[in-house]
Design a protein that fits this description.
The protein is α+β, with helices and mostly antiparallel strands. It has one domain: Mago nashi protein (2-Layer Sandwich). The protein is 21% helix and 28% strand. About 3% of the residues have low confidence.
């Protein structure tokens, strides 16, 4: 009788709950398209409707050619007015090998991660767009990034454009 009671107690203590379902395997790592890359950070603000004119600040880093192209200007009035505004020519400068390597690593980090959340400008703020293309001009990444407050790979890349 004692043996039967022990068996009943053992059976009662035995967990007959089904085993948890197996976890799905982690997703495969993202395949990062080959470079060289071009990284553009373009910001443009119009003073309309409260005034005329605006500001433009565009930078493009061509990591293959090792160049930085900068176009920055302020314009008054209507750029399509009777005397259209002609923007200045862009300035082109060389990038150092360490900067190219750093930016290339930052681009690969962005393309390997995500998803990322846009950071939109505040009301009346300046919208900015970060774009990454490959050597053939195919767009690999694009995000509205008016700030770099978030702690992510995109913000790190945008900080590299800050003066």
């Amino acid at each position: 009788m004692r043996a039967a009671l022990v068996l009943v107690l053992l059976a009662a203590c035995h967990d007959d709950a089904p085993a948890p379902p197996p976890q799905p395997p982690p997703p495969p790592p993202k395949v990062v398209p080959a470079g060289p890359y071009k990284v553009s950070y373009e910001c443009s603000h119009s003073n309309e409707p409260f005034g005329k004119g605006g500001q433009v600040s565009n930078q493009t880093l061509d990591l293959g050619a090792k160049t930085r192209t900068t176009l920055a200007y302020t314009y008054d009035g209507d750029p399509a007015g009777p005397t259209p505004f002609v923007p200045p020519p862009p300035a082109v400068s060389q990038l150092s090998d360490p900067l190219v390597a750093m930016m290339n690593d930052a681009v690969i980090k962005v393309l390997s991660g995500g998803p990322y959340t846009p950071e939109l400008p505040p009301s009346e703020g300046t919208p900015c767009l970060l774009t990454i293309t490959n050597a053939s001009g195919a767009q690999l990444f694009r995000i509205e990034k008016a700030d770099h407050a978030q702690k992510d790979a995109v913000s790190e890349l945008v900080r590299a454009f800050a003066p």
